[in-house]
Amino acid sequence: MEKLAIIGSGLSGLTLATLLKSKFEITVFDKARGVGGRLAARRTGPFTFDHGAQYFTARTEAFRDFIKPLIDLGVIKKWTARHVEVDGAQIVKRSYWESEEPRYVGVPNMNSIAKQMAQNINVKTNIKIDSILRKDYWQLEDEHGGIHKDFDWVISTAPAPQTLQILPKNFVHHALIKRIEMRGCYSLMLGFSEIFPLEFEAAHVLNSDVSWIAVNSHKPQRGSLHTMVIHSSAEYAEKNMDIDRNIVINHLCQETSSIIQHDATQAIRQVLHGWRYANNAKRDIYKPFIDHDLKIAACGDWCLGGRVEGAFTSAQNLAHALETG
Ligand SMILES: Cc1cc2nc3c(=O)[nH]c(=O)nc-3n(C[C@H](O)[C@H](O)[C@H](O)COP(=O)(O)OP(=O)(O)OC[C@H]3O[C@@H](n4cnc5c(N)ncnc54)[C@H](O)[C@@H]3O)c2cc1C
């Protein structure tokens, strides 16, 4: 059996591993402590937050078939939130997700989906791959100089700019991938000592440095503590990615307070995470990036319009292309 190294244990990497494990001997590497990538959860004190992907839709039959067993297991559930669009502090649109296209979440956290998928896969976490080098086979070099040897194939599922840092410059798709832009985002996690009423559980915010507000604790099986997740706009994150984090926390708290008409600074836990590569700048669609001569490939949400379903579909397309040659 040929040996395949997959860089990244987000939904793309784990989908590839699941679909290809009968054809290849697979090792998945991830620089993070746990699996899931941007299907992420952060635990701090008594609070847990989804600070990456917030929810997802399932618009293709293949993705609906994929999530069905996870729904049956209780690892994915619908989130029936009251959703609003806010412009300034004004609610301009209301809907109820119960009566619309289903919005799904991982249970009890977004990364539960990845944890379930990784159960029968050889995943090595805490290993950041810096580069790959072809001897007779591929060797992956990690940030500490560790060498992981003898792979026939290497696939990177890291965000596009990180994939370019790892894969060699003679990768046939290098120039095309270089054109794919990804945007940043700040995720502010707020834990409160008491519940307070709001007119919504999910809000897309327009014309503000805040782009999204969620009552995280309203999602299924999140426990009884009141938690909120606030996302900045991409513009705000990119302009302020390297400034003092307390300035960002204060600013996003102030913006949130004026939108929800409640003092967000009263949160007893305030944690900030900066995502340099949160989402695609454009929703472009690419064919799987495969170099049959070098035996390297790349996929991820950035190949297929971004989002959770795009990550799955890009991996499925790549797996199919590898199987059929
Ligand atoms: C703040 C935020 C909000 C979002 N909201 C939504 C939403 O509401 N709905 C939705 O559908 N999508 C949302 N998304 C997008 C969604 O999270 C992604 O589309 C999806 O999770 C991407 O999966 P992936 O496997 O392609 O990439 P990732 O999940 O990013 O996986 C890539 C993995 O590669 C690893 N990696 C990177 N470099 C290296 C290296 N050198 N060595 C080893 N490992 C490496 C990373 O640690 C990561 O685990 C959001 C994303 C963010 C950040």
Short key terms for the protein model shown above:
globular; 325 residues; 8 helices; FAD/NAD(P)-binding domain; binds flavin-adenine dinucleotide; alpha/beta; six-stranded mixed beta sheet; single chain; 20 strands; seven-stranded mixed beta sheet
CATH topology: FAD/NAD(P)-binding domain
- The CATH superfamily appears as FAD/NAD(P)-binding domain
The averaged pLDDT comes out at 96
Oligomer: single chain
Structural class designation: alpha/beta
CATH structural architecture: 3-Layer(bba) Sandwich
Reported for the largest beta sheet, the result is:
7 strands, mixed
What gyration radius follows from the Cα positions, in whole Å? 20 Å
Q: Name the ligand types.
A: flavin-adenine dinucleotide
Structural overview:
By secondary structure, this protein is an alpha/beta fold. The protein has one domain (2-324): FAD/NAD(P)-binding domain (3-Layer(bba) Sandwich). 25% of the residues lie in helices and 33% in strands. It has helices at residues 11-20, 61-72, 112-117, 160-166, 174-178, 234-240, 245-260, 307-324; strands at 2-7, 24-29, 42-44, 47-49, 76-78, 82-87, 90-96, 104-106, 123-124, 129-134, 138-142, 147-151, 153-156, 182-192, 202-206, 210-215, 226-232, 269-280, 289-291, 296-298. The strands form five sheets. A seven-stranded mixed sheet has the order 7-6-15-16-17-14-18. It has a six-stranded mixed sheet with strand order 9-2-1-13-20-19, covered by helices on one side. Strands 10-11-12 form a three-stranded antiparallel sheet, with no helix packed on it. Strand 6 (82-87) and strand 7 form a beta hairpin. Helix 1 packs parallel to helix 8 (307-324). The longest helix has 18 residues, at 307-324. The radius of gyration is 20 Å and the shape is globular. The protein starts with a strand and ends with a helix. The model has no long low-confidence stretch (mean pLDDT 96).
